[in-house]
Amino acid sequence: MNRLVEEAPCWNTCARSPGKNMDRSSFRTRLLIVAGFATIWTGAALGRLAYLQLFRYTEYYSRAQHQQRLIVDVGARRSDIFDRNLNPLAMSVPVDSAFAVPSEIAEPQMVSRLIGEVLGVAPEEIAARIVASHSFAWVARKLPPEKAQRIAAMNLRGIYFQREGERFYPKRELAAHVLGYVDIDEKGLGGIEYSLDAPIRSKPGKMLILTDARRRWYDSSDKAPETGSSVVLTLDENIQYIAEKELNQAIHDTQAKSGTVIVENPTTGELLAMANWPTFNPNAAKDSTPESRMNRAASALYEPGSVFKIVTLSAAIDQGITNPDEVIDCQHGAIVIAGHRIRDHKAYGKLTVSQVLANSSDVGAIKIGLRLGAPKFYDYIRAFGFGQPTGVDLPGEGRGMLRRLQNWTPVSVGSISMGQEIGVTPMQITSAVSVVANGGLLVRPHVVRAMRRGTQISESPEAPSRRVIRETTAASMRRMMEGVVLNGTGKYAKLDGYTSAGKTGTAQKFDIATGHYSAHQLIASFVGFAPINTPAITVYVQLDSPVGPHEGGMVAAPVFKRVAQQVLAYLDVPHDIPVSLDARSASRARASAQTLADVSDFDPQQTDFSAAAGNSSAASNSLAAANPAKGSSEAIPAAEEQTVELDEGSGIPVPQLQGKTVREVTEQCMKLGLSPVLVGTGIATAQSPEPGTTIRRGSHITVQFARDVSLVTLADRRKSR
User: Residue 10: CB partners within 8 Å, gap ≥ 6?
Assistant: First the structure.
């Protein structure tokens, strides 16, 4: 028994040994299974990771970037637009835009209410902008300085500011239809701003916003926009001012619905001025009507009337069918074509071809057109550029209306000979008359002179030209058109000190309601050039539906005279005939009492025409004073001559602006909330009110500029930077 007891431990030990071996074997098995699963899982994970990294990397990277990064375009700084003398017509100035980070705004309703009170906008509209996004939302773009300062002073959490460029037109309505306008994103929507939007605008800036997994903004960075190419136009701001001033005077005097004035260099095709009425202020284009933004000079379609007789007679003389001295029987003012009786405005008998043009005889022009024949007539009409765009570098140009030859009716030759049954634009008529002025060549009109990018200047290529009529034909037509001014319907276009030539036009408008030409709604026009032997300018004038006197010779020819007289004097064109003694005396008297013409503050809608009408020479003198021409050292009148009405009460001190450029003055005034009135070009020489004077925000401050040789020029200042 004792032996059995003594042997028990050994039995127990022996009994446990096989079990221990089995446990170890089972552990190893389990370990191998776990290791196998781990290996398979790891391999699968690594394989999946390799698949995502090697084959799906681009997709998931872009998705991550889209979720974590928000890129907001910041309007590019548009380059400047200058006139031919590098006077700025359009520029960009820095302004502040407010944006919100909604995830940081604890009380959107309160923030919306506070900002809405400053902006004058309903709080609900501000709140809708804020809740539209989790990471970024524009609150207000391109704020006036005073409103930006008021919002910044509130120190609202989640409201930030981004610097952007805002387009500014310092001369307001001046050349508005040529310049065009832009939208809130600085995208061109009209004129040169639209046609050259890409080179002017270049690439916009970028604002990068980084967000976390909950779309909360935690960082941002800016990339400055690239500067585009500035544009130098063929326009001259002084000539443009003359054209707009005289057009608005004519609109006031005649109560016409609309009007156009074009001034062109007939030899080069350069447009020196293009004025339209009604007009608009491109600084507030959104407040204007589509009618006022229409560039009538390039796109308005109308029947030219008697002005088109220039084409009829030019074609006939060029073909040798007639000559200026041939006598035409005008049949006492009546002719029948294909059963249609056409009556002249007077019962003319026998007239020479020159007299047909001078007296604007419809019957005489029709008889010459019939002798020319439809095929030849059609070819010359096309050669003069009608029925097709002129190619002017402005958007929206019309091609006119010229039916194909096979669609002409038996009466078409007669109708077109006197300017009916054909649609033209003012630009087409101007180009056609320039053919006669320059010796028979059709030159493409253009308004862009050069592009500038940094120090690189790319001038526009010389406008192509092609011959339309022989030089001898053009010379004959110039003499015949001079007869219109001296002895015919255009006597009110006669200049003092210069020879001039032209043609009047009085076209009936087609009344859609009655299906006939209206006896009361007419388009009065005059187009001419001066001087005759060496034409420097071609001037076109059109008035739509004038009230009272409505003939082109009565209402449009005087406008031609006022515009041409001033422009020729401004360009220093030598006189080719003696100047009358009365004109010299009147010019000296007006010069002694002249006042500064403020081009930048010109507002056609609010101009006092009774005061602005004046005389052509006086206007020319005042313009010369505003911008001393071609290196003149004549001093600009003192600032005290300008009257500035200031609001009473405390405000901000007037800064020192003398010695600054136009751009620097504009930017500083806008930062302070002042409205600059810019007079002249170059460097600021005088200002009113004086520096240190306290005025209210929003008041006008008049700054005079000069290009005096004793001052640093704009070009020198730029080179020194």
Answer: none
- Residue 387: CB atoms within 10 Å: 18
Count Cα atoms within 13 angstroms, Cβ side, for 368: 35
User: Strand 448-453 vs strand 456-459: parallel, antiparallel, or unpaired?
Assistant: antiparallel
Cα 258 to Cα 202, 247, 261, 331, distances in angstroms: 36, 9, 11, 36
Please compute the mean of the pLDDT values over residues 503-509 and round it to a whole number: 91
Q: How far apart are CA 476 and CA 442, in angstroms?
A: 17
Q: Check if the beta carbon of residue 185 is closer than 8 Å to that of residue 177.
A: no
Question: Residues 477-500, buried b or exposed e (16+ Cβ, 10 A)?
Answer: bbebbbbbbeebbbbbbbbbbbbb
Distance of CA 282 to the CA centre of its chain: 8
- SS3 of residue 161 by DSSP: strand
- For residue 269, which of 426, 462, 473 has the smallest C-alpha distance? 462
Taking the CA atoms of residue 709, residue 714, residue 716 and residue 721 in that order, the dihedral angle to the nearest 10 degrees is 150
Is the model's pLDDT at 538 over the cut of 80?
yes
The separation between CA 496 and the C-alpha centre of its own chain, rounded to angstroms, equals: 34
Backbone φ and ψ of 336, nearest 5°: -110, 125
225 touches 204 (CB < 8 A) = yes
Provide the token pair at 272.
């020196």
Which of 138, 78, 130, 129 shows the shortest CA–CA distance to 107? 130
Distance CA 437, CA 431 (A): 10
Return d(Cα 198, Cα 202) in angstroms, integer. 6
Residue 202 CB contacts under 8 Å (≥ 6 apart), including other chains: 76, 79, 225, 226, 227, 228, 229
Q: Kindly state the average pLDDT of the residues 97-119.
A: 84
- 206-243: pLDDT as tens digits: 666 555 555 555 555 555 556 778 999 999 999 999 99
Give the highest mean pLDDT range of 49-53, 480-484, 667-671. 480-484
Helix (H) or strand (E) holding 49: helix 2-55
- Selected residue with higher pLDDT from 321 and 92: 321
Kindly list the catalytic residues. 306
Residue 396 and residue 191: Cα distance in Å, rounded? 9
Which bin fits 612, alpha (ψ -120 to 50), beta or left (φ > 0)? alpha
Strands (E), 317-431: 327-329, 334-337, 340-343, 350-352
Burial pattern 523-552, b for ≥16 Cβ within 10 A else e, equals: bbbbbbbbbbeebbbbbbbbbbbbeeebbb
Beta-bridge partner residues of 92: 167
Answer for the pair 279, 399: CB distance below 8 angstroms, yes or no: no
Pairing assessment for the beta strands 230-233 and 448-453 based on DSSP bridges: antiparallel
Vertex 223, ends 219 and 225: CA angle to 5°? Answer: 145
Contact at 8 Å (CB) between 545 and 300? no
Sign of CA dihedral 392, 393, 394, 397: positive
What are the φ and ψ backbone dihedral angles of 30, each rounded to 5 degrees?
A: -65, -40
SS3 47: helix
Tokens for 530, please give them. 């001066």
The per-residue pLDDT for range 683-705, each reduced to its tens digit, is: 888 888 888 888 877 677 888 88
Contacts of 534 (CB under 8 A, 6+ apart): 576
Q: What's the sign of the alpha-carbon dihedral 305, 308, 313, 315? A: negative
DSSP 8-state symbol, 377: H
Asked whether 221 and 74 are in contact (CB, 8 A), the reply is no
**Average pLDDT of the chain, as a whole number:** 81
The pLDDT tens digits of the residues spanning 617-630 come to: 333 333 333 333 33
Q: Does residue 15 carry a pLDDT above 70? A: no
Q: What does the alpha-carbon distance between residue 130 and residue 228 come to, in Å, rounded to a whole number?
A: 33
